[in-house]
UniProtKB/TrEMBL annotation:
SUPFAM superfamilies: PRTase-like (SSF53271). InterPro entries: PRTase-like (IPR029057), PRTase_dom (IPR000836). Keywords: Glycosyltransferase, Transferase. Coiled coil: none annotated. The keyword Transferase applies. It comes from the Bacteria. This is Phosphoribosyltransferase. Transmembrane segments: none annotated. Residues 6-166 form the Phosphoribosyltransferase domain. GO terms for molecular function: glycosyltransferase activity.
Length: 209
C-alpha cells in the first residue's frame, strides 16, 4: 500500500538511479502519472515533460478501455474485445476517437503551450504512470516513443497486474513495477490517498520542473 502518488514516485526513483548519468528525459502520463514522474525527474536531475495517451472507452463505462490513442496519432484498438461487446460499431469508435483527439489537443495546449515533444533520438526515456489497469494507454505510449526514435525506453509504475507486466516486459528495455498483484480490481485500492489530479496541479508541477 502506498501512502500517495508522491511517496510512490520517491520509491520508483530509488530503483532508477542507475540511469542518472545517461542522456534522458522523464515523461509522465497525465494527469496522475505526472506526480510520481516529478519525483523521478528530481532524483535523476532530468528534464520532466508529459506524454499524452488517452483511453478509447467502452459505451457507458468510461473506465473500461477498448484501446488508446496518443498525441502523435498512434491508435491501438483491441479488436477481439470490441467484437465481444454490444453497442460498439464503427460510428461509435470514430466518435470516441474524435473526442479523445480533441482532449489531446486541449491538454497539449494546456500542459505544453501547444509545443511538440523535444527530440527523443539518442535519449533514454523513462515513462511514468501512477498505475496500470488494462495497459492500453501505456502500450500506445511505448509504441509511439519507439516511432519517435527513443534510444531506450524504461516504463516505471508503482502498480501493475502481474499478467500485464509479463506482456510488457518484452516491449521495453526495462519495466520497473513496485507491486504486481495477481488479484487486481483498481489502481486506487493500492493507495491510502488517491484523489483525482486536476489540470492545475499538473501545470504547477511542470512550471516548477
Amino acid at each position: 500500500m502506498f501512502k500517495n502518488r508522491v511517496e510512490a514516485g520517491k520509491e520508483l526513483a530509488s530503483h532508477l538511479l542507475k540511469y542518472k548519468s545517461e542522456n534522458g528525459i522523464v515523461l509522465g502520463l497525465p494527469r496522475g502519472g505526472v506526480v510520481p514522474a516529478c519525483k523521478v525527474a528530481k532524483a535523476l536531475n532530468w528534464p520532466l515533460d508529459v506524454f499524452i495517451s488517452r483511453k478509447i472507452t467502452a459505451p457507458l463505462n468510461p473506465e473500461y478501455a477498448i484501446g488508446a490513442i496518443t498525441e502523435n496519432g498512434l491508435l491501438e484498438l483491441n479488436d477481439e474485445l470490441i467484437s465481444e461487446l454490444p453497442d460498439i460499431d464503427a460510428e461509435y469508435i470514430a466518435h470516441e476517437i474524435k473526442h479523445q483527439k480533441e482532449e489531446i489537443a486541449r491538454r497539449k495546449e494546456l500542459f505544453r503551450n501547444g509545443r511538440d515533444l523535444p527530440d527523443l533520438k539518442k535519449k533514454t526515456v523513462i515513462l511514468v504512470d501512477d498505475g496500470v489497469a488494462t495497459g492500453f494507454t501505456l502500450l500506445a505510449a511505448i509504441n509511439s516513443l519507439r516511432k519517435l526514435g527513443a534510444k531506450k525506453i524504461i516504463a516505471a509504475v508503482p502498480i501493475v497486474p502481474k499478467e500485464i507486466k509479463k506482456a510488457f516486459n518484452e516491449k521495453v528495455d526495462q519495466f520497473i513495477a513496485l507491486k504486481t498483484p495477481e488479484v487486481f480490481f483498481a489502481v486506487g485500492e493500492f493507495y491510502e490517498e488517491f484523489p483525482q489530479v486536476e489540470d492545475e496541479e499538473v501545470i504547477k508541477i511542470l512550471q516548477k520542473k
